[in-house]
Structure formats: structure tokens, C-alpha cells
Amino acid sequence: MALIPAGEFQMGDTFNEGGSWEQPVHAVYVSAFYMDRYPVTNQQYVDALNWAWNQGNLIAVTDGVVYSAGGGTSYAYCATTTGGGGAWSRITWDGQQFQVLAGKENYPVYLVSFYGSAAYANWRSAMQGKALCYDLSTWSCNFAVNGYRLPTEAEWEKGARGGAAGHRFPWSDTDTIQHARANYSSNANIPYDTSPTRGYHPTFLAEGYPYTSPVGYFAPNGCGLYDMAGNVWERCNDWFSDTYYSSSPYNDPTGPLTGTNIVVRGGSWHASATAARCASRSDGIGPNYRAINIGFRCVLRDPTGGTSGICAASGMFSIDNRNADLDLDGDVDQEDFGLFQACLSGSGVVQTDPNCSNTDFDLDSDVDQTDFNKFIGCMSGANVQPDPNCMN
Hints:
By secondary structure, the chain is α+β, with helices and mostly antiparallel strands. It has 6 helices and 19 strands.
């Protein structure tokens, strides 16, 4: 996860080119938080599904669709290849175990509802011993606890802007977009879409429908976040209102109290450059809706309260853009060592599991002895007390 420092930013369409629901531009202060560097992947979601299934009372599978246990078919979480997804789903179910279709492990999960996204956030929290943000009977979110949840719209846009102001896209060196920067559908009629290739991204068009791309394929923004433009739309926690910006509070807005549709952000492989703008917001989906171009990522409140500042893709974390405090509890201790050790495999200590990407401290695409030495350097003494040089 990447630390997004606390601070104020201008939220909304500064180019005055989007819908009225992107206006007025208004100042918002967002407290520090951590954000997934990538959209949640198929493998991450399947790992959580298998954990939830093994608990015995969290999920049920009916006709290949995953539901909340005991809730009948009211709250559909996700589709599999045997129900609700068919050839488009990347998740298989054999009656005992969920798996990912070979080669699609590191692609963003889709065909997941808001309910399935919130449930995943709770499962991920429980797997790490964190407090649960969501009440899965009311689907309300407790923003005060330190567990995983979907980002608010304000958090999502602050992260997407990458620490820069006044730019159209998550990058700040230009206000145009091309297929070299994002997986989206290029349209020559949009003046800031200057891609030499048009239509769907040619690389992923060749892989077959739907045309998603592996997470992290394109360069990160200034906060070290990937795929904030294109690939899959990303759910926020907020209900949508086209007039909310006129009454949004300054401090940590969490959206309207009620609504019909959930906000999605960022555009997708199927959407045009207009949707990939940082300010773009869509109201197109209800909480039960599942689609092949909608995914999500999670955030985590910074329990220390954080400090103000501008994030950067390099230098956010003291270990080569990684944070030795793997469980984000404010110190580097035995629990972090356990998480790191789980990402090592055998005497060669080489691991390419995408769930272990944050432990690849030297960024060489495996978790090995070099990473181990770097991690140990952030632990001190028998009681493995925190080293301030290894914290955010």
C-alpha cells in the first residue's frame, strides 16, 4: 500500500469540461491514509474467498454465484465461470475450492458487486487481525476503525492526482492521454486523446475479451499508485449525488447518507479518455451490480494520524518504495517478520506471489535473501523494536 499524506486539494473539474456533477471545484481536506498500489487482483480475491469459505459461515455458493451466507440470494458477492460469469469470469469453483484461471492471477478482479467488495475488505481485515469496517447486515461503514474498506470519493481523487494539482490525468507531465499510459478506448474526437492507436488498446485486444490488463502494466502516478486511469472502473464507498459537491463538508467527506447508486471512478478498458480524467465520476451502478469492467481497491486509515505533505512515487517508504511495517500497526515487529517470512519459499527464498509484492524491497520481482537482509536491518534487538528509519 502507498501512504497518501494528509492535506488539502482542489476536488472537481478544474478544466470545466465534464458534467455538472463534477462542479463546483471545492477545497477538501483528507486525513492521511494508505491505498492499495494496484486494483485488487483475481488471486487476492480468490485467496480471500477460500479463507471465507473455510470459516464455514461467511459465504454460500448457489448456481456458481457467491452470496452472503444465510442471506439467500439477496446479496450476490461475485460470479464464477459456472454462474453469473461464464467465459468472462476468471474465478473457478469446483464445489470445494476457488481458483483463478491460469495466467489471469495478476489481472484485476471484476464481476464483483459493492457487497462483494465490502465483504472482501472485511475478510482481508480479519485475516490480518484488524477491526472490521463494514456491518454486513446494514452495509454501513465505520470510518473510525483501522480496517480495510473502499475509498471515499475524496480519498480516491486525492490519490489519483498523485500529489499534483490542476492536471487532467493521474500524471503531471502532460494533460493528454495515449495507449502508452493507460488501458482505455481511444477516440479521435476527444481533443486531449492523442493516442496514435485508436479504439481498444491493441495489446490487450489481442489477448481476447474482456480487454483488461495486468495490474501495474503502466507507470505509477506521483503517489506510487497504478491503474488510476483505465483498466477497470473502481468502486468508491460513497452513494452518488449529482449535487453533493455543493454541500460537501471540508474535512474527510464520506458522501451522502443515502442513495441508489454507488460512485465509480477512473474509467476502464471499455471507456473513453473522458472517463479516465481524475475529476470524472460516474453514477452508473447499484450495489448489486456486477460488470466485466468494474473492480476496486482498498484503503486503510493511518492510525498515527499522519503528516501533511506531498506524496512521491519514490521516497514514500524508506526501503526502496516499500514499508517494513507490513501490518501497518506503527512498528516493525514479530508480526511483520511473520508476514515477510510467509513470502519466502524454500532455501532459495524466491517468491513471485503478487500478494507479496510489498516485500520485494529491491524491486527485482522476487522475494529473496537481499530483501531478507534489508528487512532484518529494520528490526533491532531481541524484541524487534521499531527503527524510525524504516517507518513512513
